[in-house]
């Protein structure tokens, strides 16, 4: 696991899921689905 600051060195817009560990998709499936959906909608076509 890395901090948001560390990740920002590698990607332009890191996303933090506060309170969730490395199994975010298990811990909060609805939040994970919302994040993926939002990212999919931002992708250039």
Q: Could you characterize what this model shows?
A:
The chain is an all-alpha fold and 45 residues long. It is 51% helix and 0% strand. The chain contains three helices and no strands. It has helices at 4-8, 24-27, 29-42. The longest helix has 14 residues, at 29-42. The mean pLDDT is 87.
Summarize this, please?
This protein has 45 residues and is mainly α.
**Beta strand count:** 0
Give the averaged pLDDT, no decimals.
87
Count of DSSP H/I helices: 3
- Low-pLDDT parts are none
Q: SSE order in H/E notation?
A: HHH
Q: Largest sheet, if any?
A: none
CA distance, first residue to last residue: 31 Å
> Can you tell me the overall shape?
flat
Strand fraction: under 5%
Structural class: mainly alpha
Cα-based radius of gyration, to the nearest Å: 12 Å
Give the proportion of residues in helices.
40-55%
Topology:
Layout: H1 4-8, H2 24-27, H3 29-42
Keywords:
45 residues; mainly alpha; 3 helices
């Amino acid at each position: 696991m890395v901090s948001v600051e560390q990740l920002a060195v590698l990607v332009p817009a890191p996303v933090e899921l506060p309170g969730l560990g490395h199994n975010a998709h298990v811990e909060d499936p609805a939040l994970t689905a919302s994040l993926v959906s939002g990212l999919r909608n931002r992708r250039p076509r």
